[in-house]
Design goal:
Layout (H helix, E strand, L loop, with lengths): L1 E9 L2 H12 L2 E4 L2 E3 L7 E6 L10 E5 L4 H14 L2 E2 L11 E4 L5 E4 L13 E6 L3 H11 L3 E5 L2 E5 L6 E4 L13 E6 L2 H7 L2 E2 L4 E2 L5 E4 L1
Parallel strand pairs: 1-4, 5-8, 9-12, 13-16
Antiparallel strand pairs: 1-13, 2-3, 3-4, 5-9, 6-7, 7-8, 10-11, 11-12, 14-15, 15-16
Length: about 220
């Protein structure tokens, strides 16, 4: 299986694509699809929805910084593009900055000197709510090796580099309704079913119940 895209449900897909293109410096494949200009290895797609955002997302980007000034520049750029500061329970002593995009999708600008993301680019990680089991599932499904597996927390990374995908282990945020972010894969659907995915009316779900599609 191959991870083709990370898809965002969006009230205004073109506007949200413009925000992320400006922040990440990615290029437009079409009005609602962005292609990376780095080693990220997958697209961003923005799909229309009429459903409002009602809870914290199960996935968010961690963007890296090379210095405190670099972190401040990224935050300022994001705010200029339409982001805002949000409080998701982060502690005052924590040095990362938590923001949301114009539709409320959370992301973090990580402080310089973060050893876990030291080998990653600007898009350091896609941080996910999820179990150890789901980390193992995605490692097998994508053929990406585990680069972290401790205390029920897992992380995988493509052999070709790019961001890590991490799962933080319990406790989990309660899932109500469909996720606003989901993976789009290419490959043989029978393979993910063999690994433990469930088939639904709209695609598939992983062992934690997170939706994904296969194009």
């Amino acid at each position: 299986m191959k991870l083709r895209a990370l898809c965002f449900a969006a009230a205004d897909p073109a506007r949200l694509a413009r925000f992320w293109a400006g922040l990440l410096n990615w290029t437009f494949q079409d009005d609602v699809t962005l292609a990376p200009t780095d080693d990220t290895g997958f697209l961003l797609r923005f799909l229309p929805t009429d459903e409002p955002k009602t809870r914290q997302n199960q996935m968010h980007f961690d963007l890296t910084s090379t210095s405190l000034e670099d972190q401040q520049r990224t935050v300022a750029k994001a705010l200029d593009l339409g982001a805002r500061h949000i409080d998701i329970g982060q502690l005052p002593e924590e040095e990362h900055v938590v923001l949301s995009d114009p539709e409320g999708n959370e992301f973090c600008v990580i402080e310089p000197g973060n050893n876990f993301l030291a080998e990653c680019g600007f898009v350091g990680a896609l941080a996910c709510d999820g179990s150890q089991e789901v980390g193992y599932f995605w490692s097998k499904a994508l053929g990406w090796p585990l680069v972290w597996d401790q205390d029920q927390e897992t992380a995988i990374r493509s052999p070709h580099g790019g961001p890590k995908i991490t799962w933080g282990g319990p406790p989990f945020t309660a899932k109500t309704g469909r996720n606003r972010l989901h993976f789009e894969l290419t490959g043989d659907p029978a393979e993910v079913v063999r690994l433990g995915a469930a088939v639904t009316d709209t695609g598939f779900t992983d062992p934690d119940g997170n939706e994904f599609t296969i194009g």
